[in-house]
Amino acid sequence: MLENNMLIPKKKQRIGELLIEEGLINTNQVKDALKRQAQVGGHLGSILVELGFITTDDLLGVLGKQHGIPSANLFKIDIAPETLKILPIEKVRKMKVLPVHMDENSITLAMVNPRDMLTIRDIEFSLGKKVHPVVVASSQMEAAIHSIMSHPQNGLTGSGVEKEIRKTETRKAPPLITLLKYLASSPATDMLLSAGVSPSIKLSNDIKRASMDSLTPSDCERYARELMSEKEWEIFIQKGEADLAVTYPEIGRFRVNMYKQRGSLSITLRHIKDILPSLEELNLPVWIKEYALMPQGLILISGPAGHGKTTTLAAIIDIINSNRRCNIITLEDPIEYLHKHKKSNVNQREVGLDTQTFYEGLKHIFRQDPDVIVIGELRDPESFSIALQAADTGHLVITTVHASTTAATIERVINFFPPDQQNLIRSRIVDNLLFVLAQRLVPMKKGDERVLAYEKLINSFSVKNLIREGKTYHIKSQMLTGSEEYTSLESSLAKLYNEGLIKFEDGLLFSENKQFYKELTKTL
What we know:
The chain is an alpha/beta fold. An 8-stranded mixed beta sheet has the order 14-13-15-16-12-17-18-19, sandwiched between helices.
């Protein structure tokens, strides 16, 4: 059924403005629809229909007025198979056009954008007929194209278009439990849930999207509420972000990060394996065990986010837990790996749940009689000052820092403090540091897993002098060829490449000194 509406507006108005002018919607409804459009894409008019603010006939009447041409309601039109065959299905899908009627000299063409003169001229040239465009709602066009592609031999019926629309409206996102099971069984590091795209996983640092419908803002909110308690949800609404860990007995444990974006929320999920990996399984050097069992000192683990620092930390804790009879206290945000008491007592405290901040937890830690203190991440000078005090007074302190190299790790910690305190901090680091490990996870040559490459710096006599003299950044140049106290990241990457574990290009990508990496791999 075609609806003639040849009234051309005096000036080109937006669809929302016209609908308000007609008294069909108000400005708040337009704002709601624009917010949803920013989240999931699509045309504003169809979104207004989807939200129930206007009817399809309302939209078509205004579209006809906006473009100054007739509109067509595909719910009320049947198109014969022979009419559809005059245009290849790929052209229909790509151009978003639909032949509605044809006679000897002309063709009536349903279009989402009837002002697209290039498309009109292309079809006029290919068919040798005059095109008479009619405007249709984008949601109806998408449903019609989907129906045709599913059953190309049947033509198109209005009831078929309505059926496709109802399928879209009643579609349900997969249950959260299904997504968690999939993540737990896959080699992916993370799952990303955001409005406007389908659930995605991260494999070897690349995002891969599931072949399913895009999530809506309400889908993401439903997942978030399922993952959180009511109290956690209230705190999230106030703060706009949250870190937590959840356990599903039949599936496993997951680290969860939630944050607001563009009026909706997004979720990042990471599966935490129940069995703590060994040093060998993580491709970590065995000498770490010797230092992990020392009674006193400071161990720094660094690297970018998502490159396994927390897992390395957990492996070191497990070494101590399995070999020493001591009291281990951790401060984590959130708790990821759950440690069972073995030879040691392991007391795990979660920031935001068991203590307000890392600093608050550290302020009282000496009264808890710790032998080993594990800090999930150093973020401020106050926390690091207490960590140094703990190492000074006979404790083993292990923590992570966001930094790219071993030298940058030390300098970042020093730069936490004002210039007048930095020389003193250098001396205290020299006195307490055991080693720094800067690590990267590199995609493996085969499969979707990643393998660890690292730069190590052990606090030897020569290293102490360089740190004390403020020449930390000279460590790499002075020890580039390798020594017992220093191993460059390039050496580690070259070893992985020469063993056939990684591609040359991936090793080059993660190298800082690319020429040195090429020399080590004998690729010039």
